[in-house]
Amino acid sequence: MSRLISSALSLRRDPRILKLPPYISLACILGGIAWLFLLPLSDYSRRTYISENALLPGQVHTYFGGSDQHVLRAYKHEVNSVRDKSNYEINDKLEGILKSVGLKVGRQNYTYESAGDVYTGENIYAILQAPRGDATEAIVLIAAWKTVDDKFNQNGLPLALTLARYFKRWSLWSKDIILVIPPDSRTGTQAWVDAYHDSHDSSRVNSLPLKSGALQGAIAIDYPQEHRFESIHIIYDGINGQLPNLDLINSVVNIAGGQMGMGTAIQEMWSHSDKYRDRLLTMLRGMLNQGLGHASGPHSSFIPYHVDAVTLQPFGEGWHDEMGMGRLVEGTFRSLNNLLEHLHQSFFFYLLMHKERFVSIGTYLPSAMILAASFTITAISLWVKSGHQDQPSAPASTTAKSENDGTTSQEVLETAKGTSTPSPSVPAVERDLFLPLGLVAVCQFLGVVPLYIFNHMPANMLAGVYTAFALTNCALPFFISSLLTSTYNPTVQQYQLVKSFSLLLLGMFLSALATLNFSLAFLVGVMASPLSFMRPWPNHAAVRWACAAILQLASPTAALYFVSSYFNISIGEVLKEAAFGWDVWGMYTPVIIWGVWWPAWLMGSVIVLGQPTAKSKSL
């Protein structure tokens, strides 16, 4: 045992151990990515199931239909008559319809400002008081005037009005039902749900005149098409990558497929073979949407308040009509009405790769954690290396000693076989921390500059500001590197400490972020992975410029361009959407990009262009 401890201590003092961390870091990066690509396999994913037995999805008979179809046609005619009217004239019409049904009606004005644009409107909502309830719980039905794609919700809104009238006739409800009709799918629901939970800015959003109990769930209808449909697209991504309880999605899938004979799809995978390729593509699409952190529908605003919500969007051409869609909503509401407590038994952190297959957080989280660990491992190794002076290699010293002593190499080897000589300890040197700490701190705070600029510039200037910032972003590392070389003349040790502190912060931030928004942490970790292998190349100009070019391609500004190309929208629209998310939805993706990723990228670029000296101070 003592020999084992002695061997371990000698290994700890062996300078060759410091050569392993880069390979370990690379293994972590490749392992994290490989882990993610294993998830779509059947051995690593599970079939979905209902955890909350009280839901009983598809166990009740739905009665919506028959004469309700005539009511739907009448409401459709009423809605179309005010299609081109102003928001307030439309709400006057809707208020009369809702009051005629016997519902309590409230209205709410709001105004948001973002990127120089003003978003104003008025929400109208109605409350159906539960005959068997005491106004302590409620379910929300949302039918925005404009859909997710900014189209007129010509079937969704009449269907919601018909359902409200239909629900009023039933005495089985134990929870209040709230019908919310916002003017759009982006701002209206956010203003309403903020005011419902008293977390709104009273200078921009009015308080609600009527309220009910705690919200247990929400269903949004996004139904702009006139023809019959084939399947239902379930939109479930929330703001900042938050997700509804998996039981809600499973209930909708169960009711649609088992009771209504409808197909269901997720992540715009209109046809899904349930093979590896489609599973992987579905999972990656979900990760991209969750990583961006934007609202994918009117339901997204509810999820940050722990209100499980989804948007139902018919697609395709089939034999299902508005009545089938209404029965699906009725069945889902009947299941939510059965709940005795908030949905909590199923998963809130998951990746769906098929409507009936998922992976939970315990299975996918290690991939992001391993990625974050790669930065931490490199940071720790650089810290250790910065405190030791480089020594000549062992074979060279052994050869020199044998030559001076007049012994042959064969004699040295024979002696080494007989005796075990401990490795010489590496001389320690004093660490100069002032410059590395100051430089990393300044670069971290510099992230406030692009964060402020892109969130406060008018929309018509964002594209030009992006171009100017991208050019500045290319020149800034050269400027900082030249300034450091001419003013402070940093040593190799100081560059090691700069990289160590920068990667340590990056690894810490990403590991914490992975538990909140796995997708964003993983995407940033993959894009930032080259930073672990960047170091100064003072005597190799070609390598230095090649590394600088690689970092430019892996920069946040390049990532913004890739996102705009993927979604086929202009860079100005991407930045406008990001500013809107920051101002209205509370989206923190810009903070991660400019406050976490960009400073680490800037430090990596400065290190690559560095011209270090070899001086160090021995202890």
List the helices and strands and how they pair.
Blueprint: H1 2-12, H2 21-38, E1 46-47, H3 68-81, H4 87-101, E2 104-114, E3 117-128, E4 137-142, H5 156-168, E5 176-181, H6 188-196, E6 214-221, E7 229-235, H7 246-259, E8 263-266, H8 276-292, E9 309-320, H9 322-337, E10 350-354, E11 357-360, H10 361-386, H11 394-405, H12 409-418, E12 429-430, H13 434-446, H14 448-456, H15 462-487, H16 492-514, H17 518-528, H18 541-553, H19 556-566, H20 571-585, H21 589-608, E13 617-618
Helix pairs in contact: 2-10, 3-5, 7-9, 8-17, 10-16, 10-17, 13-16, 13-21, 14-21, 15-20, 15-21, 16-17, 16-21, 18-21, 19-20
Give the structure's gist in a few sentences:
The protein is α/β, with parallel strands linked by helices. It contains 21 helices and 13 strands.
Question: Which structural traits does this protein have?
Answer:
619 residues; alpha/beta; eight-stranded mixed β-sheet; three-stranded antiparallel β-sheet; 13% strand; elongated; transmembrane; Gaa1
Question: What does it look like?
Answer:
This protein is α/β, with parallel strands linked by helices. It has 21 helices and 13 strands. It has helices at residues 2-12, 21-38, 68-81, 87-101, 156-168, 188-196, 246-259, 276-292, 322-337, 361-386, 394-405, 409-418, 434-446, 448-456, 462-487, 492-514, 518-528, 541-553, 556-566, 571-585, 589-608; strands at 46-47, 104-114, 117-128, 137-142, 176-181, 214-221, 229-235, 263-266, 309-320, 350-354, 357-360, 429-430, 617-618. The strands form three sheets. Strands 2-3-5-4-6-9-7-8 form an eight-stranded mixed beta sheet, sandwiched between helices. Strands 1-11-10 form a three-stranded antiparallel beta sheet. The chain has a two-stranded antiparallel ribbon with strand order 12-13. Strand 7 (229-235), helix 7 (246-259) and strand 8 (263-266) form a beta-alpha-beta unit. Helix 3 crosses helix 5 and helix 19 (556-566) crosses helix 20. The longest helix has 26 residues, at 361-386. The two termini are 33 Å apart. The relative contact order is 0.12. The model is unreliable at 391-423 (pLDDT under 50).
